[in-house]
Design goal:
- By secondary structure, the chain is an all-alpha fold.
- It folds into two domains: 496 residues, Sodium/glucose cotransporter (Up-down Bundle); 55 residues, no CATH class.
- Helices cover 70% and strands 2% of the residues.
- It contains 22 helices and four strands.
- The strands form two sheets. It has a two-stranded antiparallel ribbon with strand order 1-2. The chain has a two-stranded antiparallel ribbon with strand order 3-4.
- β1 and β2 form a beta hairpin.
- α7 packs parallel to α20.
- The protein is globular.
Amino acid sequence: MDIQQWTAFLVGASFLLYIVIAIRSRANSTGEFYVAGGHVPPLANGMATAADWMSAASFISMAGLISFSGFDGSVYLMGWTGGYVLLALLLAPYLRKFGKFTVPDFIGDRYYSQLARIVAVICAIFVSFTYVAGQMRGVGLVFSRFLEVDITTGVVIGMCIVFVYAVLGGMKGITYTQVAQYCVLIFAFMVPAIFISLHVADWAIPQIGFGMGTPGQGSTILARLNGLHEELGFSSYTRGSGNTINLIAITFALMAGTAGLPHVIIRFYTVPRVRDARTSAGWALLLIAILYTTAPAVAVFARTNLLDTVYKEGQFQPHSSMPDWFNTWEGTGLIKFTDHNNDGLIQYVGEGAVDAEGLLLQNELIIDRDIMVLANPEIAGLPNWVIGLVAAGGLAAALSTAAGLLLVVSTSFSHDLLRKWLKPDISEKEELLAARIAAGVAVCFAGYLGIHPPGFVGEVVAFAFGLAAASFFPAILLGIFMKRMNSEGAIAGMIVGLLFTASYIIYFKFMHPELDSADHWWWGISPTGIGSVGMCFNFMVAGIVRSFTADPPQEVLEMVEQIRLPEKG
C-alpha cells in the first residue's frame, strides 16, 4: 500500500478504537463526567496523564524546535519536564486531598469568594482555548499532508472525533481513550526513531545513537551537524546563541505553566486516594520521559538528513533533484522554495552566510518546523507503514490533549459557573446536559482557532503555559503553603498576572508583529517567556494586597492546615 492508504488505514483504525472506548465508557453522572468517578487505577491514570500532557507540541513541535534551534531549543525539554516534576511533588497530592472537581473549585473555596472562582474560570477558559488552538492546528497539519486534504477539512474531521468521546464520555471516556492514545503515540514516536538510529549510527537506542559516530565516518553525528551548521552560516548546533535571560525566562514560564495547567491538575482528582495520586504521577513521569529523552535524537537525525538532502559534498542541490517527500510537502505550502538568483539550486543558509568569493548568500528555503517529526520517516526513506504510523501518533497526541482541555472548559461552565454560582439548585441531569452542550460549543470554537491559529504549534502552546504561570500557579501555590493569603490578594494577583502577560503577547504577536524581536522586547524577554515576569507580578501584587487586607476566616485556615497534613495509608 502507498503512504496515503497506510495512513488512512492506521488513522481510521485508531479513531474507531477511540470511539468504541468512548461509547463503552459513557459517563452517566456528573462525577463520572468530571473526574471519572474517582476510581481510575494509578497506572491507567499515569498513562492518561502522559497522553493528556504530551500534546501535539510534544509529539510534533518539540523535536522540530530543537531541530532548528539546537541547544536553545532545550529550554522546552527543561521547562516542560521540570514543570511536571514540580506539579507532581509540590501541588498534586495537596490538590487531590482537597477533593473537588476543578481548579476553580479549589480557588473559589480556598479563597472563600465567588469573584475568585469567576476569575479562575476566566483564566481556565483563556488558557485552555489558547492551548487547544495549537492542538487543532496539529490535527489539520497531519491531515493536510497524509490524507491530502486542506487544513480546514482536517480540523473539521478532528473536531468530529473529539466531539464524540469528549461530549459523550466526559472524563471517564477521555481517560480510557487517552490510555489507548498513549500507546499509539509512544509506539509511533519510538519506531521511526529506532529505525533511523540503527540506520545512521548502528544503535537501536536513539538516546545513545545520536551522540555516536556515523558508520564509515570518523566524527560523531553531532560534530558533523555542527560542521554543516557553521559551513552554511547557522549558529553552532550544540552551543546555541540565545539571550541567557530570555532562555531562563522561557524555562521558568514553562515550568510554572505546567504546574498550573488545569487539564493536567484535574487528572489527579480521578484516582481514589492521595497515595494513588503520587503513584500515578510517578508512572506519568516515567512514561513521559520515554518520549522526552528521545526527542533530541529525533531532532538531530531530522536536521542532519534534511541538510544532507539539500547540501551534498559542499554543493547546493538543484530543486529538480529533490526527492518525492520534498515535493509533496512543498505542495502543502509547509516547505517554500524561492529561487532568488534563478540558478535552480536550493540555497539553504543562515544569516550572514557567504560564498567562496565572500559574497553574501540569500536563503531560498523556508521550512515549517512543525513538519520535522512528520517528515522525518520520509526523509530517512522508511517504509510507508511507518510514515502512516507517525501520522496516527501525531493525531493521538493532539486529540488526547484537546479533549482534556475541552473538558476543562465544559466543567468550568457547567460546574463552576452554573452549579456554584448562577443556578445552585440545578439537578444533576441538567448539569450533565449543560456540560455536554458546553463541550460541544467549545469543540466548535476550538476548531475555528485551529483553522486560524496565532502561530506554530509549539509557540501557541508556550503562550498557554505562560498564561497559566502568570495566573494559576501563584494562586495555587500560595493557597497551599501560605495560610494567611486572602481572597483580595489572590484575585488581584491573578488579574494583574493574566492581563500583563496576555497584553504583552497580544501587543507583539498581533498588534505589532513587526516589533517582535529582541531589539524591542522588554528586558530582552520574548512573548514566549513573559509569563515568568507575569508570575512575579502576580506574587508581588498578591503579597502587597494581602498585607493591607484582613486575614482569611478561621475555617479557611483550618482547611489549609488539614490539606497539608500527610494522609495515612
